Amino acid sequence: MISELAQTVAPIPTRLLGRAFGAEQLAVVCEQVRLAQPASRAEVARRLCVALQWRSPGGAYAGMSARVALLRLHRLGLIRLPPPRSRRNNENRRLGPAPPAAPLPPLLSCRVDQLGALRLHPVRSDEDARQYRRLLQQYHYLGYSATAGAQLRYLIVAAEGVLGATGFGAAAWKVGARDAWIGWDQAQRGRRLHLVVNHTRFLLLPWVRVQNLGSKVLALAAQRVGADFRARYGYAPVLLESFVESPRFTGGVYRAANWQCVGHTRGRGRNSRRHAAALPVKAVWLYPLDPACRAVLAGAP
């Protein structure tokens, strides 16, 4: 079992959650850990957001992102956080254990235009969140994982019932093919990365055999993701990205929805600083939500 606290102290990261970081910022973190009363991880994160003015692009303090950053520093051995109050994360406590797998429903086979009232249902309630998590745990090859930061999750719903789930979240920090297509430099990427949103999960349930459903869902998402992000976080992204594992998938559903394949990853992971390939190579697919997205992303501050 891997200890939560690293055995040796690692070098100080130069960036943390897309922000510049160094010895000066680490000293601030250590001071907030010392001053936190009550001595809890949530309180340390709250104090850190104020001290370093860590805010989301919409202006609110980025509490969840701060907790992710603190945990990374803790695991690197650079700080020592107070012990967690529970070994189960907040989402697990709120949603409870996932229910056991149920028998598969009857096969649904038709054309997408034969479905009734196809729509994306935003995940807002705990009941929605439980269903979203259960579907991904049981039927998505990557499973389910909780993420911090700005994100949107939807259930794919029609009159025939729930057909799947899809989610959007924070973009990968550095992707050579994407960054070359945009034409931005590191400083521009640091300022504008929040305007790129990653299509993190896409699931059509195994008993759903509906022609052209995947591309239709992608089209519905493209129509509403920008407005939903603005309503929830105070800003609208201009570009969607997705990473499709090769050769497991061809990416045909993205091609049919007019996404563009701009290259492939090197198998190093979405936030990796290492140079050795450790993950499957993935095709990089992009979809502009704004025709001028490249000018926006590579623009002046």
Task: Give the assembly state of these chains.
Answer: single chain
Mean model confidence by pLDDT: 85
How many helix segments? 10
The number of strands is 11
The tally of domains stands at 2
Q: CATH topology of the largest domain, what is it called? A: Aminopeptidase
The CATH architecture category of the largest domain equals 3-Layer(aba) Sandwich
Shape estimate: globular
Decide which structural class fits the backbone: alpha+beta
Helix percentage: 25-40%
Notes on the protein architecture:
This protein has two domains: 61 residues; 202 residues, 3-Layer(aba) Sandwich (Aminopeptidase). Helices cover 34% and strands 20% of the residues. It has ten helices and eleven strands. The strands form three sheets. Strands 4-5-6-7-9-11-10 form a seven-stranded mixed beta sheet, sandwiched between helices. The protein has a two-stranded antiparallel sheet with strand order 1-2. A two-stranded parallel sheet has the order 3-8. Strand 5 and strand 6 form a beta hairpin. Helix 1 crosses helix 2. The chain is globular. The N and C termini lie far apart (46 Å).
Q: Which key terms come to mind for this protein?
A:
301 residues; alpha+beta; Aminopeptidase; 2 domains; two-stranded antiparallel sheet; 20% strand
